[in-house]
Give the backbone structure.
Amino acid sequence: MSSSAASSGSSRPAFVDLRVSVGRVSLKNPIIAASGTFAYGIEFAQLVDLNRLGGIVIKGLSAQPMEGAPAPRICETASGMVNAIGLQNIGVRAFAAEKLPLLRQYDTAVIANVFGHTIADYVEVIQVLEAAEGLAAYELNISCPNVERGGIEYSTDPGLTAAVVAAARAAARRPLWVKLSPNVNMIGVTAKVCEAEGADALVVANTYPALCIDAHTRESRLGSTTGGLSGAAIKPITMRLVYEACRAVKIPVVGLGGIEKPADVAEYLLAGASAVEVGTAHFVDPRASERLVTGLEKWCRDENTFEISKLRGALQR
């Protein structure tokens, strides 16, 4: 090897800096396990080194325990899956008493996903969690039906979006992330409403309404008839939503949809995302998030990108 080549090789940084920030929340890397795909986090501790992950969003918490939707709940589709879990969970109080203390031993940001059918439900969940230690932020799921307004989703009505985000902001001292629905005409409008009402970050996006039919039985393949599409099939559509949301607001955006390999992560960051959440990939490989951390570091070395935060919003055209 020539002396110039040796000199060139020795000048490369000794490590890849994967650190990112989502507003006030600092993460060791941009890989976050998505809500509903990683249980309460602690269940994966025997399979995954939780300390390697940037963060964990635990499955949605309601004020009272919920049994969820009837079986079957999952249906495999081309390049993805449709699910109708029905937000089954043990309730916020059981989580705070039984699960959260176990999560505190890990050096990983824990984000609590919060939902409700009334604004008072959202506030109650946050108030219970405010009294507990060990959480980095809240993720507000506003794709739920408002039973006080005939079942319309909070996320599809700017007025309802504003009301639920404002109420959550008033109740929460911790950073507030709002998880948006893709089921809107202009996601930038919803994004701006959330920003105006005090959201610290946005998560884009939730699953896409879908239906899978068994032509032989002439019935839906899901017990609740319809469900939400996720997986690789939705990535290009969600990428556009992330790009548009990032152009509409100044607060950070977390990308979520179809992430399976390191290049997927890079693409979301280039579109403007500050971090990403990994979801459906966990159903194929429970260690998907941890493998992505390792793979992303190698990808950055191969691409001569030694500070991953510099990818954010660097789309050329």
Summary: Residues 1-10 have pLDDT under 50 and may be disordered.
